[in-house]
Design brief:
The structure holds 2 protein chains of 2 kinds.
Chain A lengths: L3 E8 L9 E8 L4 E5 L6 H8 L7 E6 L2 E2 L3 H4 L2 E4 L11 H11 L4 H14 L15 H13 L5 E5 L7 H16 L3 E5 L3 H7 L2 E6 L2 E7 L6 H9 L7
Helix pairs in contact in A: 3-4, 4-5, 5-6
Chain B lengths: L1 H16 L2 H31 L3 E7 L4 H12 L3 E3 L7 H5 L6 E5 L11 E4 L5 H19 L5 H6 L15 H15 L2 H14 L1 H5 L6 H30 L17 H22 L3 H18 L11 H6 L4 H13 L5 H25 L4
Parallel strand pairs in B: 1-2, 1-3
Antiparallel strand pairs in B: 3-4
Helix pairs in contact in B: 1-10, 2-7, 2-10, 3-5, 7-10, 7-14, 8-11, 8-12, 10-11, 11-12, 11-14, 11-15, 14-15
Classes of the chains: A alpha/beta, B mainly alpha.
Chain lengths: 239, 371
């Protein structure tokens, strides 16, 4: 049973003529780290929001470990780190984690100990009681990941987890992801950084304009960036 | 579910109460307005309801017994405050800004050929001018006609009564509820900015990836601001009752049925929170929402008798006031503090406020875009 199956999903924002996702299908094997790459407007973030139940009026089918989404209980098996840093800057890191832990329905005592664990995993333990508004971009990005990891999800969805941060923070995030994946967590990584995707992931789905244009093992691709440009063209994507 | 709601409320309270600008807007601004505007209104209120002493200078040019008696009577009258300005020109005396009138008693005034001269300050209130003229006239008649106490004689002929004041609030009765309500409506600024910020930074979307219902998220937004609104009113009341009495001569009177403040405050807080939720739902950007909230609150205050007491507004504005929910809120409090109204008198205002709240929540529910 796959960790994630997307079957012929079509989604439109309503105010745009073209579909954001068009008959989109892909699968993610359990325990794998799977890259989702594509130029701007490929539908990567939309797909993430469909999987996490934010968008529900789509055609097609999304299943997570055999359970059709949207499903309230299955939501808890997903950890999602959105592209924007989606944490409360007016709270401390610990307060953020306690809050999101409560939203995930975790018992208070469990949240506190898990919060400490994920803060250590993401290198933020020494800054747990500091307001997030005082954090650097890299620290905020790591907290964004920590929130996604808090409730020990089976499937981790990461939307551009290293955008706009310093090399040290990026390296720390890569290390964390590798360790989590080695421990059995399935990871779907949406990224623009081809080198990152090729080094970390065993499989890749290449999307463009809401459609899958390649879905297969990474081992079949010599150079992901060249492959990407060949498939999607070199023209600018400003729309 | 209860745990999730508790955490949603806690999160919102922490964020709001840690924001210095919000604290200034919601708590310090109304305290400052109550303080300064109560002091500013005190003089006007004293003039209007309790009267102020007429400040005058008596120039006695006669050495006669009757002239001295008139001078004594004028200076001893409780409605008069005689000022000492030795041998100055009349215009020079009035130029000090304190003296409203110079009374000159000429030589031989008691013969009827040399009248007492009243030299008024040109900007004197017409009411004071009439009162001063009538008082000096009475005293002059007493002295010239050898009447011991003309007022005692007049009391047999005229009885004066005044209807108990149920219309014009004291400065604190006006400002405490007025600026508490004003600040409570300003809750729409942090509420809408907070909501739109969560939408923009993705935290709101992130919440929807957890098994949390929109109803719970909505309640988690409404309840904290509702509580803050109630805290605002309590703070303003405490300032009015315990602090302002040290700065102003008219203490804050809570009325005969102070318990009515509870339902009134609950209804006002529902209206203000509803307004805030509506602004948050219709605003597209934080700037748009905060401008809309501030402009609406100020206009409602102008029309609603918050900035100028409703009792002294011109007739047209008095009628127009009913369009402002602040008017209904303020009048409900004045029913308690000023008019000793029974609950049946306050209830219609609570119904209006509740309807306003329901309409706001309905519009918000129709217009809100969570994602």
């Amino acid at each position: 049973m796959n960790a994630l199956d997307i079957s012929a999903v079509t989604y439109s924002y309503g105010n745009k003529a073209a579909n954001a996702l068009n008959n989109f299908s892909m699968s993610v094997a359990p325990g794998s780290m799977h890259a989702l790459v594509g130029p701007n407007g490929a539908g990567k973030s939309t797909l993430m929001r469909v999987i996490t139940g934010q968008f529900r009026s789509y055609a097609g089918r999304v299943t997570i470990r055999g359970r059709t989404m949207p499903d309230r209980d299955t939501l808890l098996s997903i950890g999602y780190a959105p592209q924007p840093i989606s944490v409360y800057t007016g709270l401390t890191a610990m307060e953020n984690l306690l809050f999101f832990g409560a939203m995930a329905g975790m018992p208070k005592t469990r949240v506190a100990s898990r919060a400490q664990e994920v803060l250590e995993q993401t290198g933020l333990a020494d800054h747990a009681r500091q307001l997030v508004s005082t954090y650097s971009g890299g620290m905020q990005r790591r907290l964004n990941l920590a929130v996604a990891l808090l409730h020990s999800p089976l499937l981790l969805l990461l939307d551009e987890p290293t955008v706009g941060i310093d090399p040290q923070s990026r390296y720390h995030i890569y290390e964390t992801l590798t360790a989590l994946n080695a421990a059995g967590m399935t990871v779907l990584l949406s990224t623009h950084i081809m080198e990152e995707a090729q080094r970390l992931c065993r499989a890749v789905t290449l999307a463009d304009k809401g459609t899958v244009i390649y879905d297969g093992p990474m081992s079949e691709i010599d150079n992901l960036e060249s492959f990407f440009l060949k498939k999607t063209g070199r023209g600018l994507r400003d729309n | 579910m209860t745990g999730q709601l508790k955490e949603l409320i806690r999160k919102e309270m922490l964020i709001v109460l840690r924001d210095r600008q919000t604290i200034m807007l919601l708590f310090l601004m109304p305290v400052a307005l109550i303080f300064f505007l109560s002091l500013a209104m005190e003089g006007v209120w004293t003039d209007k309801l309790t009267g102020r002493k007429i400040q005058l200078v008596v120039k006695n040019e006669s050495a006669s017994f009757k002239a001295k008696l008139l001078e004594q009577k004028i200076k001893a009258d409780p409605a008069i405050q005689a000022l000492d300005r030795p041998d100055q020109d009349n215009d020079l005396i009035l130029a000090d800004g304190k003296t409203q009138l110079v009374v000159t008693i000429p030589e031989g005034f008691e013969t009827g050929n040399h009248p007492v001269e009243l030299y008024f300050e040109p900007a004197i209130d017409a009411g004071y001018k009439i009162a001063a003229r009538s008082l000096i006239t009475s005293l002059a008649v007493e002295v010239v006609m050898d009447i011991d106490n003309l007022e005692a004689v007049m009391q047999a002929l005229i009885v004066e009564k005044t209807k108990p004041n149920r219309e014009l609030p004291t400065p604190l009765q006006q400002t405490v509820p007025a600026y508490a309500i004003f600040a409570m409506f300003f809750i729409s600024i942090p509420l809408s900015i907070g909501f739109l910020k969560e939408k923009n930074d993705g935290t709101l979307q992130r919440l929807f990836t957890y098994p949390v219902s929109t109803h719970l998220i909505t309640l988690g937004k409404i309840i904290p601001y509702y509580i803050i609104n109630i805290l605002q009113f309590i703070l303003m009341l405490l300032v009015g009752v315990f602090i302002m009495q040290h700065f102003i001569s008219h203490a804050f009177y809570l009325g005969e049925h102070p318990w009515q403040m509870i339902p009134v405050t609950l209804a006002v807080a529902a209206a203000t929170t509803g307004f805030g939720v509506m602004i948050a739902a219709v605003g597209r950007t934080q700037e748009q929402a905060s401008t809309l909230a501030a402009v609406s609150a100020v206009l409602m205050a102008v029309f609603g008798g918050i900035m100028v007491p409703h009792a002294v507004l011109p007739a047209v504005l008095k009628k127009a006031a009913v369009i402002s929910p602040m008017y209904w809120a303020h009048q409900a409090y004045l029913d308690i503090f000023l008019r000793a109204a029974p609950f049946s008198g306050v209830a219609p205002k609570l119904i209006v406020l509740t309807i306003f709240a329901v309409i706001c929540f309905y519009i918000a529910g129709r217009r809100v875009k969570w994602i």
